[in-house]
Amino acid sequence: MAKKKIAEEKETTTEIVPLNPLELRVTKNVVGVLETNIEQLEAYVTKKLEEYNPESYFGDADMARKDRSELNNSKKVLSQARIQLMRELMKPYSDFETRCKNLEKMIDTASGKLDDIVKAKEEEEKTAKKIRITEIWNSRNFTIVSLEKIFNPRWLNKTCKEKEIVTEIDAIIAHIYDDLSKSMQSLVMWTRSRLITSIALTSGMLSTTGNSFQRIEKSFSRKPNSGKKGSI
C-alpha cells in the first residue's frame, strides 16, 4: 500500500511543459572533427622558407624569379583548398541560415499586413481626435488666427489627453490677446508721437526754445473742462 502511494506521488510530479511553436530548438548538433595534414604543412613550409632568406639564398636573379613564382603558386593552391574546405564545412550552417531568413521574411510579410490594419485604425482615431480639437477651438469663438496656424501635431498622440490640449489652446489664445494688447499700446504711442510732432512742425513751435514739445504733449493728456476748450 505504501509503495503504491509513493508511485502515485511520483506520477503527479511529472509535468509536461508546452513548447512554443515558434521556438527554434536544436535537436542535434554534432561538432565535427576535422583531421588534416596542416601540422605537416606548417613544419614543411617553415623549414622550406628558411632557404629563401636573402642572407642564405644562393640563387641568382633568374633563379629567384622562378622560386618566387613557385611560392606564389603554392600559396594560391593552399588558399583555394582552404576556401573549398571551408565552403563544405559551412554548407549545413549556410543552408540553416538561409531557411531561417526565409522564415523571418514570411513573418515580416504577415506582420506588414497586420500593420496596415493597425495604421488604418490609428488614422481613424487621429481623425476623430482632430474633429474634437476643432470643436474645442470653435467653442472659444476666437477668429484672429485659424486653428491650422497654431495646431500642434502632438495633440493627436494617444498620450496627449484632452485636458492638456484644452489648457494649451487657452494659453495660446491668452498669449495672442496679450501680444495684441501690447502692439496696440505701442501703436497708440507711436501715433500720438507722430501727431504731436506734426502739429508742432505746422505751428512752428519746434523752432522755439524751452519745453514746447512737452507743452504740446501735456495738452493732449489734459482732460477738457466743461464748456472750455483746451489751448496749446
Structure characterization notes:
With 232 residues, the chain is mainly alpha-helical. The protein contains 6 helices and no strands. The protein has helices at 2-12, 38-49, 61-139, 147-150, 162-203, 212-221. It folds into 2 domains: 43-139, no CATH class; 143-222, no CATH class. α5 (162-203) packs across α6.
Summarize the structure.
With 232 residues, the chain is mainly α. It has helices at residues 2-12, 38-49, 61-139, 147-150, 162-203, 212-221. It is 68% helix and 0% strand.
Mean pLDDT: 78
Q: What is the CA–CA distance across the termini?
A: 127 Å
Count of helical stretches = 6
Using only CA atoms, what is the Rg?
47 Å
Q: Quick one: overall form?
A: elongated
Low-pLDDT stretches: 1-18, 226-232
Helix content: 55-70%
Topology diagram in text:
Elements: H1 2-12, H2 38-49, H3 61-139, H4 147-150, H5 162-203, H6 212-221
Helix pairs in contact: 5-6
Keywords:
mainly alpha, disordered N terminus, disordered C terminus, 2 domains, 6 helices, 232 residues
